[in-house]
């Protein structure tokens, strides 16, 4: 409860920080962009991760202002990157359920210095526990102006294939749990192979998350994933480190 109060001041004081985790092309290993990940640098409790941060924000009814701040900060920083790099932003189901989401988001892009085609929205399947049609409509409107949409954490939840069919998507992000066992268990590899096949059959690209070893990276490349992300090459980092890495 005290934390919910602290969050109000945190938003005003710039305690919310955005880190960036690079993503790499499976084709040539080059960095293609990064995912923005929010953190709260709490003055006495130290760092609070995004999952806890958004839980607190939900209880405090502050998801919308928090998310606006994170997105604006991420876009502002990403506008300093070389133009070939994309920016992936996590969007909560609550936000997608807002009637004005697409329009507000588009206005935010307009105020920033970043081309819509450089942006990917990462959504989770909880969206669908809400209003699927409304979410699909908002996503379609944003894709119309050039954004990409990725279904995040695929394989961690219910994996309802209806989402793949009914949401306007460009990619799926395989959850770390789908990748972690692929080099030691044939069945894990079989599941990954089937999901990649399904994604490709639907015209979707696949991003593999949580890559920690060279063997995992090589396996997801061999299985036809398009991009990968993971501690093997880069943990979430501050913008200045991101810029340094981008300039190689
Ligand atoms: O980096 P970390 O382990 O704290 O991320 C935990 C979860 O929080 C991840 O699932 C990530 O997608 C989500 N997350 C990180 N940053 C944001 C954000 O800015 N907005 C939303 N909605 N979710 C985020
Ligand atoms: O739910 P989402 O996929 O957005 O969560 C991303 C979270 O996963 C971030 O908190 C990030 O720090 C973490 N993460 C990113 N890469 C790796 C990895 O290679 N291994 C592990 N264990 N966690 C990772
Ligand atoms: Na994400
Ligand atoms: Mn994810």
What percent strand?
15-25%
Number of helices: 11
Distance between the termini: 44 Å
Largest sheet: 8 strands, mixed, barrel
Radius of gyration: 18 Å
The CATH architecture category equals Alpha-Beta Barrel
CATH topology: TIM Barrel
SS-based structural class?
alpha/beta
Q: Shape, please? A: globular
Mean pLDDT reading:
94
Q: How much helicity do the residues have?
A: 40-55%
> Class in CATH?
Alpha Beta
Question: What string gives the helices and strands in order?
Answer: HEEEHHEHHEHEHEHHEHEH
Regions with pLDDT < 50 over 5+ consecutive residues?
Answer: none
Physical arrangement of strands within the biggest beta sheet: 1-2-4-5-6-7-8-9
What is the number of E strands? 9
Bound molecules: guanosine-5'-monophosphate, sodium ion, manganese (II) ion
Task: Describe this structure as you would to a colleague.
This protein has helices spanning 2-13, 50-59, 63-78, 93-96, 101-111, 132-144, 161-166, 176-179, 186-201, 214-222, 239-246; strands at residues 16-25, 31-42, 46-48, 86-90, 119-123, 148-154, 171-174, 205-208, 227-228. With 248 residues, it is of the alpha/beta class. Strand 5 (119-123), helix 6 and strand 6 form a beta-alpha-beta unit. It is 44% helix and 21% strand. The chain has eleven helices and nine strands. The chain has an eight-stranded mixed beta barrel, surrounded by six helices. The site of sodium ion has 4 residues, from loops. InterPro entries: Cyclic-di-GMP_PDE-like, EAL_dom, EAL_sf.
């Amino acid at each position: 409860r005290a934390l919910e109060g602290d969050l109000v001041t945190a938003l005003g004081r710039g305690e919310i920080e955005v880190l960036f985790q690079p993503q790499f092309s499976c084709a040539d290993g080059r960095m293609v962009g990064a995912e923005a990940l929010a953190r709260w640098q709490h003055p006495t409790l130290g760092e609070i991760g995004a999952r806890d941060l958004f839980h607190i924000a939900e209880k405090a009814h502050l998801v919308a202002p928090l998310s606006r701040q994170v997105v604006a900060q991420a876009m502002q920083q990403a506008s300093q990157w070389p133009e070939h790099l994309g920016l992936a932003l996590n969007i909560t189901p609550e936000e997608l359920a807002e009637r004005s989401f697409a329009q507000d988001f588009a206005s935010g892009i307009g105020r920033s210095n970043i081309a819509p085609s450089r942006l990917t929205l990462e959504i989770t399947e909880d969206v669908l526990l809400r209003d699927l049609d409304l979410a699909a409509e908002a996503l379609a409107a944003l894709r119309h102006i050039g954004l990409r949409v990725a279904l995040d954490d695929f394989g961690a939840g219910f994996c309802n294939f209806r989402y793949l069919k009914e949401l306007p998507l460009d990619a799926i992000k395989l959850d770390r749990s789908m990748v972690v066992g692929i080099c030691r268990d044939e069945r894990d590899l079989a599941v990954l192979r089937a999901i990649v096949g399904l994604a490709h059959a639907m015209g979707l690209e696949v991003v593999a998350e949580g890559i920690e070893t060279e063997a995992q990276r090589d396996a997801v490349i061999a299985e036809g994933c398009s991009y990968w992300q993971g501690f093997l090459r880069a943990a979430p980092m501050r913008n200045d480190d991101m810029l340094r890495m981008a300039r190689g």
